[in-house]
Amino acid sequence: MEKIKVGIIGTGFIGPTHIEAIRRLGFVEVVGLAENSQAAAEQKAAALSIPKAYGSYQDMLQDPDIQVIHNCTPNHLHFTINKEIILAGKHVLSEKPLAMTSSESAELLALAKQHGVVHGVNFNYRQYAAVQQLASMVRTGDLGHIHLVHGSYLQDWLLYETDFNWRLSPEAGGNSRAVADIGSHWCDTVQYVTGKRITEVFADLATVIPVRKKSKGGAATFTSQREETEYEDVEIRTEDYASVLIKLEDGSRGVFTVSQVSAGRKNRLSFELDGSKHAAFWNQEEPEKLWFGHRDKPNEVLLADPALFLPDAKPFIHHPGGHNEGWPDALKNMMQNFYGFIRAGKDPQQDQASFATFADGHISMCITDAILRSHAEQRWVKVAEEEF
Ligand code: SOE
């Protein structure tokens, strides 16, 4: 059977991780890569062993061999490029956030439906076996009714004033940073696990480091440039931190904190579910562990193991217990589900997808917009339901 042919736009931190995950599938082939100059595209294509290099993504969109395009560019390019991919009739997998505003994401969702393409957003944290196990336990009622959900998503790669990256600038990253960049992951994961939408928010945001020193040499995501001596001062207008009270659709409550200035926390997305029977906790930095809290017996820790997981979670785990799986494996699951859907000829309008679609990307944009409004107006704000 012929392999599905794919093109990747953007090869910063995330593009190469998509390529690696795709290559692990076997039935999909990355045939092209686009960068913002021919020289950069050729250099990256050679380094990543990709046959076709495009100095302009528009040229790649014209390639009839390519059926699917991944948009791995900085945030401000997501809307325009996603739109052009759809108009070129290709299936699309976009990095989050789907666009810069919820009106843009609404437009993309409508367009993708109209053109009948498969659409996905890389909310990869739902793809962990342990997260699937929790989602399945919530569905089967094992934890009881979920009253409360609370947690955080903490990173430290922007802790120092000399830490700088395109994500900090509203022009490239958007008006929200910590909330859009990592809060969006927390909300998507928690909504997926509980099966409930976040319908109302009350937010407090802060820019902990209001002026940063930008290295004249530039810096990639998660890298530090502290040896650099040449800096310029840049005023920061996006948040390093947010705490958000949430209400879910059935009236249950929660709260989460996001921060990119929390020393020692590298990529710590965690959440706790308080159910009427039991509680459960998961932390992305120890992805194999699930903690269960009980009132009438000792608490438990379950180590991920296909033999101990529920049937719905089993397809997400690939090795026996103790043979740890983590971030790249969850990303592979994302690709497996997205490309399995395409290979089966499924339609996102009719068939249930186990990956996040543009509908989820749009919901996420609506939540981010509501959080920004809540902080600005210091009040509870409803997530714009009519736009779902
Ligand atoms: C940077 O904050 C970042 O790379 C996010 O953009 C990703 O979505 C997250 O998975 C890891 O951190």
Automatic annotation (TrEMBL):
Domain GFO/IDH/MocA-like oxidoreductase: residue ranges: 131-278
InterPro entries (UniProt xref): Gfo/Idh/MocA-like_OxRdtase_N, Gfo/Idh/MocA_oxidrdct_glycsds, GFO_IDH_MocA-like_dom, NAD(P)-bd_dom_sf
Keyword Oxidoreductase: yes
Gene Ontology molecular function: any one: nucleotide binding
Top-rank lineage group of the source organism: Bacteria
UniProt domain Gfo/Idh/MocA-like oxidoreductase N-terminal: residue ranges: 4-123
UniProt KW keywords: Oxidoreductase
Protein name: Gfo/Idh/MocA family oxidoreductase
